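Q: what does this look like with MU-OXO-diiron bound?
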Amino acid sequence: MNENIQTALNEQIKSELYSAYFYLSASGYLDSMSLSGFARWMRMQSQEEVTHAMKFFDFMLDRGDRPILQAIDKPLADFQSPLDAFTQALQQERQVTSLIHHLYALTVQEKDYPAQVLLQWFISEQVEEERTVSKITEELKMAGNNSSTLLLLNNTLGSRAGNNATPAVGAAV
Ligand code: FEO
């Protein structure tokens, strides 16, 4: 593959793994607050982010290029509340969406059609992920300081299936 695309893919692997690290950090915070449902949802999301990184990793290998792994930044760990954790998650997802879009633009410029097919999956995935996290964030805002509503939301999110699929928005909350 074109060298610029290889560099960008290596960076994208790093970003997806950073996302995994971030969600794991948030999961630890929420578990320490005895909010095991929110914590489980974040842990599942962390695992899903690893699968995203592996899609790029395997794609590079399939194209005959060796992924060069980059250093992963220390994840954010300063969370003030469940709402703050999900708000930071939404910011992270928006950042990843922006990176995916830039990467897609690069593959169009370089006429790398197989990479465009891969990235089209990610473009759709980001729409879903932003929508899901945004909806949870809005519901947390509505819950405010009402502990009953917060615990109900915690229980609902805790039912997230332990596979790699992001739950449909209606099923998530
Ligand atoms: Fe892999 Fe949540 O972006």
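Residues 16, 19, 49, 52, 93, 96, 129 surround MU-OXO-diiron (CB under 6 Å). The radius of gyration is 17 Å.
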